[in-house]
Design goal:
heterodimer; A: 8 helices; elongated; B: 467 residues; rod-shaped
């Protein structure tokens, strides 16, 4: 999967490139709008990450010009301005998603996956991590064959973690996906942390192999191997 | 606008004043003269009528059939020259019977008109062939059985020349009077506008740095005093707003500094020594935690600055209050359980308000989060929804440590925290309640903090009821 990143800020561009490459994407970086416009036209990309605030031609302009020329590659806009008008403007111009800086990197990865998946049927996810198994139809969770009793919210939370196993999920992602909370300022961090403590108690408490880990400063990860 | 071109207004006012005065003078002068002229003329007519009566007695027919007038009643022959009347006597058919010396052979009016002088006196103005304006009175008289038409004329010229003199005089006097009045008026306007200029000068010196200055003349009761007072009140509000802004900016900088300092120290200390992989992870994680704190702080600051700028749009819908409260409470369910709190929702389940769901939800969540945060383990939080008239009151009461009465209004101030030390562990930025207050007030409601019935806090939110 080849991603074009158009970002003028060097540190940010480098971080994006390294982060995406670590997630096994092929990445091309453009540091100006013109360069990005040229690259976008010259090669087929599966995805484009476009900063809005660029010197010269800004992201909105480039997006509009590309869409006018019939480019259909999914575009994710990055911006530090998050007024509703900006958002609407970007989506009107043909952006597929919109992420406000500063964002959590796992969040960006999740959005990219969602965009790449779009239109394709979800591959049946093996809802199993090590000896933890989630049965969605029955809303039942077992570990090592032993049935765990989870509340509805704990089940949703675990389900989300299992689907995204091996990847870090941020508190923001959880707030949005599990608690359906859209506002960024909502004081949910305490709630999420407490909920995690309880979930961990249930799925890891009596087992030697701990699956649910906290990644300090970023979020949580569910995975088999310890790091 | 006034103070940017003071002379213009002064000149405009003076000119206006002068033209009004000129108009009035012309009107008054013209009117006076017209009345005078009319009175003099009617006096003239009056004497002419008297004289006709005298004339009737002086006329006689000579034996030859001519008409003559006795003129031998003058004791002094020169008196004859004083008489300036014109006399003409005609037969009813129009033939001239007599003209006096003074008239000579000029015509005093043309042929008699129908009913001229019949049964009274016909009075009118005529003009002689030489242009002399005369006032003519006619009377049909019977002399020795024969009807004669007596016409008596007096010149109006002195009257008209009086008018000319007056007009001429006015042409010279009026400009002088106007000029004097203009000077006086200009002086007056200048005096009247003086305080405005003074105020303008002072107002010009008022800058954001010198907002404590006030305009002079605000102690009088006249219009200027009122103007100055209104201006000063505006200044006072501005000063307050500026002060608030200044404090806000400085507070915000302080708040930003705290996580920045932590990031810096953690990073620098981390680099000082070689650590293991997991130590570095810990260091970066710790820095990221501060970054998250910064992010949420900046998000809140943005919300507040948008609220201040009035650029936040409320999307108004009907909202059942109880449902909103229940939703907010449900989010904190796990915290409530963890602290073994009892959360009781009670009151009017049908009460609705018209408002923005997202903002109101956030407002309730902020207050409720506060209650959850400060409640002791095993405590009780009560949420009561009541509708009274066109108002919905939501009370959120906890039995935590509460807030001392003197701090209860300040708690809605930005960055205000009752307990500075406790804040960092609980993770607020001191903006939640400020935002809540803004949301409530944007919905034309009010929020207050009272002492609860037990210890604790009692937040009361009043909002206008929906339909």
């Amino acid at each position: 999967v080849h991603i074009l990143v158009v970002e003028d800020e060097l540190k940010m561009a480098k971080a994006l490139q390294e982060g995406l490459e670590a997630d096994e994407y092929a990445v091309s970086v453009a540091h100006t709008g013109e360069e990005g416009f040229y690259l976008a036209q010259s090669g087929p990309f599966d995805m484009m990450i476009l900063d809005v605030m660029l010197p010269g031609r800004d992201g909105f302009e480039i997006l509009a010009a590309l869409r006018q020329r019939g480019m259909t590659t999914p575009v994710l806009l990055l911006t530090s301005r998050d007024t509703l008008e900006d958002r609407v403007h970007g989506l009107d111009l043909g952006a597929d998603d919109y992420l406000v800086k500063p964002f959590a990197f796992p969040e960006l990865l999740a959005r990219l996956r969602a965009l790449l998946r779009r239109g394709k049927a979800d591959a049946a996810q093996p809802l199993r991590v090590a000896d933890l198994e989630v049965n969605v139809a029955l809303r039942a969770v077992t570990r090592g064959g032993e049935l765990l009793e989870l509340t509805a919210r704990e089940f949703d939370l675990l389900h989300y973690l299992v689907v995204n196993h091996g990847r870090v999920v941020s508190r923001e992602m959880l707030a949005r996906e599990i608690w359906k909370e859209v506002a960024r300022q909502t004081p949910l961090d305490n709630v999420i942390d407490t909920q995690m403590v309880r979930l961990r108690r249930k799925i890891d408490g009596q087992f030697e192999k701990k699956l649910l880990q906290t990644v300090r400063g970023v979020g949580f990860i569910l995975r088999e191997e310890q790091s | 606008v006034i103070w940017f071109r003071p002379t213009q207004l002064r000149v405009r006012l003076t000119l206006w004043y002068m033209s009004v005065l000129a108009g009035l003078l012309i009107l008054a002068g013209g009117g006076t003269f017209a009345v005078l002229f009319w009175q003099l003329r009617s006096q003239l007519d009056h004497f002419a009528i008297q004289e006709i009566e005298t004339l009737e007695g002086l006329l006689y027919f000579t034996p030859q059939g001519g008409l003559q007038m006795h003129e031998d009643y003058h004791n002094h022959p020169e008196s004859k020259d004083v008489i300036d009347r014109f006399v003409e006597v005609l037969s009813p058919e129009g033939s001239i019977l007599y003209r006096n010396e003074r008239l000579g052979d000029r015509i005093l009016g043309a042929a008699p008109f129908v009913s001229e002088g019949v049964g009274g006196y016909s009075v009118r103005s005529e003009r002689l062939a030489d242009g002399t304006r005369v006032r003519v009175v006619s009377r049909l008289h019977s002399l020795e059985g024969r009807p004669i038409l007596i016409r008596l004329g007096h010149t109006e010229e002195p009257l008209w020349s009086r008018l000319d003199e007056m007009l001429l005089g006015s042409i010279f006097v009026l400009p002088v009077v106007l000029a004097l009045a203009g000077f006086a008026g200009y002086g007056l306007v200048r005096r009247a506008l003086g305080p405005i200029e003074q105020m303008a000068r002072r107002a010009k010196e008022i800058t954001p740095q010198r907002l404590h200055d006030r305009l002079p003349n605000d102690d009088t009761d006249d219009e200027l005093g009122q103007l100055a007072r209104v201006f000063n009140e505006t200044l006072a509000r501005l000063e307050q707003a500026f002060e608030q802004l200044r404090r806000f900016t400085s507070d915000a900088s302080h708040e930003l500094r705290t996580p920045l300092a932590a990031i810096r120290s953690v990073g620098e200390v981390g680099l000082q020594k070689d650590g293991t992989r997991s130590e570095y992870r810990d260091i970066i994680g710790s820095m990221l935690e501060e970054v998250n704190r910064l992010t949420s702080l900046v998000d809140n600051l943005l919300t507040i600055s948008r609220a201040d700028a009035g650029s936040l749009q409320l999307e108004l819908v009907q909202i059942p209050v109880m449902q909103l409260a229940r939703e907010a409470a449900a989010l904190f369910e796990v915290l409530v359980e963890e602290k073994a709190l009892t959360l009781v929702l009670s009151g009017d389940g049908s009460a609705t308000i018209r408002g923005d769901r997202l903002f109101l939800r956030q407002a309730f969540m902020n207050v409720l989060h506060n209650a959850v945060k400060y409640s002791p383990v095993g405590g009780t939080i009560q949420v009561r929804v009541q509708r009274s008239g066109d108002e919905v009151a939501v009370e959120i009461e906890d039995n935590g440590p509460g807030v001392p009465p003197e701090d209860r209004t300040k708690i809605f101030d930005r960055f205000y925290r009752v307990d500075k030390a406790r804040w960092r562990e609980s993770g607020g930025a001191g903006l939640g309640l400020a935002i809540t207050k803004w949301v409530v007030e944007a919905h034309r409601g009010e929020i207050s903090l009272e002492g609860g019935s037990r210890q604790g806090c009692l937040f009361r939110v009043k909002l206008p009821a929906g339909e």
